[in-house]
Amino acid sequence: MSTSSERAARSPRVPQPVAVRWSGPVLGCLVIAGCSREPEDLICSDAGPGDLVITEIRGPQTSPNSLPQWIELANVSGDDLELEGLHVALQRPDGSNPVDMIVRYKRPLPADDYYVLGLVPDTRLEGGVDYGLAGDYDGDLYEDALLDLVSCGEIIDRVDYDNLPKLGTWSLGVVPPDAEANDDAAAWCVDATPTDGPTTELGIPGTPGEENRPCD
After folding, report:
1. Which domains are delineated in the chain?
2. What pTM value is reported for the model?
3. According to a count of CB atoms within 10 Å of the terminal CB, is the N or C end of the chain lower?
4. Do β-strands 131-132 and 114-118 pair in parallel, antiparallel, or remain unpaired?
């Protein structure tokens, strides 16, 4: 997570959580005067700052390509985490064109494991994707962007990236992943390694859900 003055000057507008779990009695309170029961809390991921690390990004590719765009996360907290309520906030470096994508269902992430959020429907997971965000956003990842993981208004991790590769992935070459280390652009590199052996899918896949290859 960046704390430099340069990044602070470009600090994004943190999205407000919108997923709320309502009980039956609370719904009744909306139409019946005099009901005193309070609504349940906003749904928030278990993750705190630095618990999740953005480790790899696959953006729009030059053809041929049939693999999805995605964002890979690593759980470095030492504990199992629940991702429901996690916001993925994307915006251009100047703060324009903000996009808020949300993990809307229970999705456990074991300690020291990886999870891949893809720009595909959650009913059609492919290419190593574990959860689909297409219900919130049907565009492409920006070539240059601020990318935040947010839970209940608190930034969990941030990556400020430029020139997302059109062939392969933008890959963090730090093992084990670390939320401070991924602030350094020098810790990232393009992974354009082709697949080994025959494949029915076209495109450079990266390493979704797996430890990244080291940067040379």
Report:
1. 5-191 (2.60.40.1260)
2. 0.80
3. C
4. parallel
